Amino acid sequence: MWSRVDEYIKKHKLLDINYLYLVALSGGADSVALLLMLHEAGYRIHAAHCNFHLRGTESDRDETFCVSLCERLGVELHRVHFDTQTYAEQHKVSIEMAARELRYKWFAQLSKDVGAEGVCVAHHCDDSVETVLLNLVRGTGLRGLTGIQPKVLVKGQTPCVILRPLLCLSREDIEAYLADKGQEYMTDSTNLESDVMRNRIRLQILPLLRELNPAVTETIKRTADHLAEVQKMLDGIVVLYKDCNILNLSELNKFASSGYIVFEWLKNYGFNGNQIEQVMHAATGSLFTSSAGYDLLVDRQRLIVEPSLKPMKKMVIPEEGKYLIGEDAFRVRKCAPYISKEAAVATLDASKVTFPLTVRRVEAGDRMVPYGMKGSKLLSDMMTDLKMTLFEKRRQLVVEDSQGIMVWAVGLRTDQRVAVTETTTEVLEIAFN
């Protein structure tokens, strides 16, 4: 039995005999077998047990069993108690999600505290097959059909590496191993109930599938492994676009599955499956917002993502000086006449501009007389003529004087009414950084 596990560990480079690892120990058959195997193989391990206080005396029974087992083996045991029910209510999540969040946060912190390289958990082949079927029933993409992976980095404030050395074994293999060792284990009574979806798959669906094919567990696992290899190839393509905020759709035509690349790219920014499906058929100018705080703009053959725009307070500039608006800086001063050729510097006839000035974002209905023109023009039309995207338009800043003249559409145009002429004796210079 160990030879198979040892081969699996080496194949996926999961463990190193020189490092310390935590073993998530619940007291059930799977985690007990994992603890025994790694202990007998000479790995440096500590055990970690979570008491979620969800099953009354059973929870305390399991903890007592883990304490006794670790004392007998001489393995250091770390324990923690959680009020899982209260956590679930306060965070408005399911009990299962609450337990998962509490568990992995603690694993991550404990790994850091004791200097462990990762946390070994006892998922096995049957768990992986159940996960594939569960995802299939709920609806999933390719990644959901690859099953449970042998090594995963759980991201968070404190990252945690999860290792699964027993994915090469079945539940039957594990129970046979423990029987051969004469090792007892605890049984979670909730695993025998069929009112939870995973348990229904385990207790009802898989037995029916085994009537069609006795080796269905192995065949589903093998198929999931093949799909995992395909997933790796696709991930190699997706990573090329991971850090960009503009996706050129025409460039993706060279790939056989551009839709998949778009899906993974947008998922990275927190967009869900329904939103992504809508994006794929959306018209130019469509705007979407993700739960992670990003906005997506469909702009012709491009998808553009940027952080959602935060509200901006208008800033009043009462006189010359230096001013800071968030990360933007303005310098206002009077100087000898000249005409700026830099987009970030506006030169205006000081005698025609009246303080205080107001710096704000462009608003609907804003008009100005662009430099070199005689009639006024909506700023929205001017920005459209310049082929600015919706994102660029909504970020656009304007400087307005006390008379309501848009003296400067920052970086774009100054107003003809305050333009520098041959009769100008003093320039008001506004520099934007």
Walk me through the topology.
Blueprint (H helix, E strand, L loop, with lengths): L1 H10 L8 E5 L4 H12 L3 E8 L5 H17 L3 E5 L2 H8 L3 H20 L4 E2 L4 H14 L12 E4 L5 E4 L7 H11 L15 H16 L3 H23 L7 E3 L9 H10 L5 H7 L7 E3 L4 E6 L2 E6 L7 E3 L3 E5 L2 E8 L9 E5 L7 E5 L5 E2 L8 E2 H7 L4 H6 L1 E4 L5 E4 L3 E2 L12 E6 L1
Parallel strand pairs: 1-2, 1-4, 2-3, 4-6
Antiparallel strand pairs: 5-6, 7-10, 8-9, 9-10, 11-15, 12-13, 13-21, 14-21, 15-18, 16-17, 18-19, 19-20
Helix pairs in contact: 2-7, 4-5, 6-8, 6-9
Describe the protein.
It is a single chain. With 433 residues, the chain is an alpha+beta fold. Helices cover 37% and strands 21% of the residues. The protein contains 13 helices and 21 strands. It has helices at 2-11, 29-40, 57-73, 84-91, 95-114, 125-138, 171-181, 197-212, 216-238, 258-267, 273-279, 379-385, 390-395; strands spanning 20-24, 44-51, 77-81, 119-120, 151-154, 160-163, 246-248, 287-289, 294-299, 302-307, 315-317, 321-325, 328-335, 345-349, 357-361, 367-368, 377-378, 397-400, 406-409, 413-414, 427-432. The chain has a six-stranded mixed β-sheet. A five-stranded antiparallel β-sheet has the order 11-15-18-19-20, with no helix packed on it. A four-stranded antiparallel β-sheet has the order 7-10-9-8, with no helix packed on it. A hairpin with a 2-residue loop joins strand 12 and strand 13 (328-335). Helix 6 crosses helix 8. It is elongated and about 100 Å long. The relative contact order is 0.08. The model has no long low-confidence stretch (mean pLDDT 92).
